[in-house]
Design a protein that fits this description.
Blueprint (H helix, E strand, L loop, with lengths): L4 E2 L1 E3 L15 E4 L10 E7 L6 E7 L1 H10 E2 L8 E5 L8 E5 L20 E5 L5 E5 L4 E5 L4 E5 L12 E6 L2 E7 L5 E7 L4 E5 L2 E3 L2 E4 L17 E5 L9 E5 H6 L6 E3 L5 E3 L25 E4 L9 E4 L15 E3 L5 E5 L5 E3 L9 E3 L5 E5 L5 E3 L9 E3 L5 E5 L6 E3 L9 E3 L5 E6 L2 E4 L37 E8 L4 E9 L5 E8 L15 E2 L36 E2 L7 E2 L8 E4 L5 E4 L1 E2 L4
Parallel strand pairs: 1-45, 2-3
Antiparallel strand pairs: 3-4, 4-5, 6-7, 7-8, 9-10, 11-12, 13-14, 14-15, 15-16, 17-18, 19-20, 21-22, 23-24, 25-26, 26-27, 28-29, 29-30, 31-32, 32-33, 34-35, 35-36, 37-38, 38-39, 39-40, 41-42, 43-44
C-alpha cells in the first residue's frame, strides 16, 4: 500500500488554536455532528507583523459547497458562468454572468468607478467600462451645394436624377451614372468614410469618347505644347488614362535595330553594328609600316595591293618556329643544328648556354649551371657504366646493374645534414655527433644498452614482453636502489604464476630476470599511496574501520538502513513494512513508521 499521511483532526467544528499547531501545519475540523456541513481545513501561518501566529482557513467541504453553488466551470462547448442568487427568503431566482463560448484572445473588462442618472455603459479599445451621457441626436450633412442637419431616427434619402441612379443595400449607398442609352457606365460607392469611383465614362457632346478608370490619385495630363496630342493608354493594367504625348515620340518610336532616333530627331548607331563586306569601298588600312633595320614593307597603301614583309635583322620569336627542312645553317652555309624528324636535335659544334638552366619541354629545369663548373641535376641521373669516378680517375662509387646496391670505395662523408630515402623523405639527420632517426628504428640484437642519464619517450604506452604467448614470464618495471650496504630492487609486475595479479615489491636483493622471485631474500610487499576508484575490494584480512572510511562490520540486517555510531561500527535499523517512512523516535534513533499528525 502507499504511505499513509494523517494530518491533525477533530470530530467537532471548532477551529484549532495557535498553540495546537506549528507554522505551516494543517488541521481539519470534521463537524461530524453536522454531517460535515461546516467542515473546514485550517493552516497555521504568521500575521503581517512577521511574528504573530494566526490560524487561516484554506478549504474544506464548507467552502467547496459554497463555490459549487454559484460557479459553473466551462465544458468542451459551454464557457464558464457565475450564478448570483437572490435572497433565499425571496425565492430561487438568480442572475447569470457567462463568458462567450468562443474567444479569439483574452478579454478583460474593467468596471467603472462612478455613474450618473440617464447614462449608458460604453467600453473603450482597452476594455475599460464607463458611464457616459447619450450623445446628441443630430449631425450635419454637407454637399457641393448647401448643408442640412439630420436628426437621428429620421430617414436619409439619396435622390438620383436623369443621369444618376442611387441604390441603398446592406448599409452601402451605390451611385450609378447613366449614358445616352440609360446604360450604366460608372459605379460610385459611398460609405461612412469615403467616396470612390471604381469605373466610369467621360462624354463629349453626349458622345462617349473614351472609357477610363478614375481614382482620386489620377488626373488628366495637360497638353505639353503645339507638338502634343492626346493618347489613351490601353496597355496599362491599372489607372488607364488619357495622356498628352509628343508627336516625335510616336513618329520615331517604331525605329529599331542598330539605328535609333531620339525625340529631337538625332540618329544614333549602336557599337559594333556595321560588318565589313564586299559592298564596302576605300582602304581598310591606310599604311602598313615596318621597323628600322628589322622589317621592311612594300606595296602598302592600296585596297587591293599585295603587301611584302621582309626581315632585315635579328628576330626574337614569341611563339613556335617550324623548320621545313632538317637543318638550321650558319650565315656561311655550315649546318649548326640538325633535326632528325623524331624530335632529336644534333648540335654540330659546342653548345653554349647563356643562362644558368636547361629546361624540359614543360618548362621544368633539368640542369643548372653554377657558373663555376658545377652542374646540378634536378631529375634522375642515368650512368651508362657501373662506376662514378673522381677527377683523378679513381672509382668513388660502383653501381650494381642488377640489385641497385651502391659500393662506396672510401668513407661516406655527407656534406649536408640529411640522409634521405628514395622518395626524398629525410630518414636520418646528422648534427655533429648527434643522429636523429625520423622513422622507426628496429634493433634485432638481444641487448640494447643506453648509457644516457635521461631517456625521454613520447609514446604514452610502452609494450613489454613482446612474444610472451606462453605466459611464462612476468611483465613489469623495476629499479635499483642502495641502502648503503646492499643493492636492492623495487618495482611492480604482473605475476604470471599468481592469477595475473599485479604486485608491488621492495627490498628484493636478487635482480629479477624474466620473473620476480617473491621468495627471494628481502622481498617485501610494497605500499601504495593513491586515490583508488572503480574495481572491487576483496580478500581483506579484517573489516575496514570507520576511521579509515569503512563500516567496521562484515554484515547488516536485510532491508535495514545504516546510521552512524560515532567511531564504532555502523548500526542498522530493522526492516520497514509496506507504506512506512523513515523517522526518528523520542531518543533520536531512526525507525520505520507511518506518518501521523495526531489530534487536537
Amino acid at each position: 500500500m502507499a504511505t499513509r499521511i494523517q494530518i491533525k483532526r477533530s470530530s467537532g467544528a471548532t477551529a484549532p488554536t495557535t498553540g495546537q499547531l506549528l507554522e505551516g501545519e494543517l488541521a481539519y475540523s470534521q463537524d461530524r455532528t453536522g454531517n460535515g456541513a461546516g467542515a473546514i481545513l485550517y493552516i497555521e501561518s504568521v500575521a503581517s507583523d512577521g511574528s504573530t501566529a494566526v490560524i487561516d482557513k484554506v478549504g474544506g467541504k464548507y467552502y467547496t459547497g459554497t463555490v459549487d453553488s454559484f460557479l459553473t466551470p466551462a465544458t468542451s462547448s459551454v464557457a464558464d458562468k457565475v450564478v448570483l442568487h437572490e435572497a433565499t427568503a425571496n425565492g430561487t431566482n438568480n442572475v447569470t454572468i457567462k463568458a462567450p463560448d468562443t474567444l479569439g484572445a483574452n478579454v478583460t473588462y474593467t468596471l467603472p468607478a462612478t455613474y450618473a442618472n440617464d447614462q449608458y455603459l460604453k467600453v473603450d479599445g482597452s476594455g475599460n467600462l464607463s458611464f457616459a451621457a447619450i450623445p446628441s441626436g443630430s449631425f450635419t450633412i454637407a454637399g457641393d451645394t448647401g448643408t442640412d442637419t439630420f436628426t437621428t431616427g429620421n430617414t436619409l434619402t439619396f435622390t438620383g436624377s436623369d443621369a444618376i441612379d442611387t441604390t441603398v443595400t446592406d448599409d452601402v449607398v451605390t451611385i450609378a451614372a447613366k449614358d445616352a442609352t440609360d446604360t450604366q457606365k460608372g459605379v460610385a460607392s459611398f460609405n461612412s468614410t469615403n467616396f470612390t469611383v471604381t469605373t466610369g465614362a467621360v462624354a463629349i457632346n453626349s458622345v462617349e469618347a473614351s472609357k477610363v478608370d478614375i481614382t482620386g490619385a489620377t488626373a488628366l495630363d495637360p497638353l505639353a505644347g503645339d507638338d502634343s496630342f492626346l493618347v489613351y493608354d490601353l496597355s496599362a493594367t491599372a489607372n488607364k488614362k488619357i495622356t498628352a504625348e509628343n508627336v516625335a515620340d510616336y513618329i520615331y518610336a517604331g525605329v529599331s535595330g542598330a539605328i535609333t532616333i531620339s525625340e529631337a530627331g538625332v540618329a544614333s548607331m549602336a557599337a559594333n553594328s556595321v560588318a565589313l563586306g564586299a559592298d564596302t569601298t576605300g582602304n581598310y588600312v591606310a599604311t602598313v609600316a615596318g621597323t628600322a633595320n628589322q622589317i621592311s614593307v612594300t606595296g602598302s597603301g592600296s585596297e587591293t595591293a599585295a603587301v611584302t614583309i621582309a626581315l632585315t635583322n635579328d628576330v626574337a620569336l614569341v611563339g613556335d618556329l617550324t623548320v621545313g627542312g632538317n637543318d638550321i645553317k650558319m650565315s656561311g652555309g655550315t649546318t649548326a643544328l640538325t633535326f632528325s624528324g623524331s624530335g632529336d636535335v644534333e648540335v654540330a659544334g659546342d653548345l653554349q648556354v647563356t643562362g644558368n638552366d636547361i629546361k624540359m619541354a614543360a618548362g621544368t629545369t633539368a640542369l643548372s649551371f653554377s657558373g663555376t663548373g658545377d652542374v646540378k641535376t634536378n631529375g634522375d641521373l642515368i650512368v651508362g657504366g657501373q662506376d662514378i669516378k673522381s677527377s683523378n680517375g679513381t672509382t668513388a662509387l660502383t653501381l650494381s646493374d642488377t640489385s641497385g646496391n651502391v659500393a662506396v670505395a672510401g668513407d661516406l662523408q655527407v656534406s649536408g645534414n640529411d640522409i634521405k630515402s628514395s622518395s626524398g623523405t629525410t630518414a636520418i639527420t646528422l648534427d655533429g655527433a648527434n643522429v636523429t632517426v625520423a622513422g622507426n628504428l628496429t634493433i634485432n640484437g638481444t641487448s640494447t644498452i643506453v648509457n644516457s642519464t635521461t631517456v625521454t619517450v613520447d609514446d604514452s604506452l610502452l609494450k613489454l614482453g613482446d612474444g610472451n604467448t606462453a605466459n611464462s614470464i612476468d611483465v613489469g618495471v623495476y629499479g635499483e636502489y642502495d641502502t648503503g650496504t646492499t643493492a636492492k630492487y623495487a618495482g611492480w609486475f604482473r605475476d604470471a604464476s599468481d592469477s595475473n595479479i599485479f604486485k608491488l615489491f621492495v627490498g628484493l636483493e636478487v635482480e629479477p630476470g624474466t620473473t620476480v622471485n617473491t621468495a627471494g631474500t628481502g622481498y617485501t610487499v610494497g605500499t601504495l599511496l593513491a586515490n583508488i576508484t572503480g574495481g572491487t575490494v576483496s580478500g581483506l584480512s579484517a573489516d575496514i574501520g570507520v576511521a579509515d572510511g569503512g563500516t567496521g562490520a562484515s554484515s547488516f540486517t536485510t532491508n535495514g538502513v545504516l546510521y552512524g555510531n560515532n567511531t564504532s561500527a555502523l548500526q542498522v535499523t530493522s526492516a520497514g513494512t509496506d507504506g512506512q517512512v523513515l523517522q526518528a523516535n523520542s531518543s533520536g534513533v531512526p525507525i520505520f513508521a507511518h506518518i501521523d499528525g495526531g489530534t487536537y
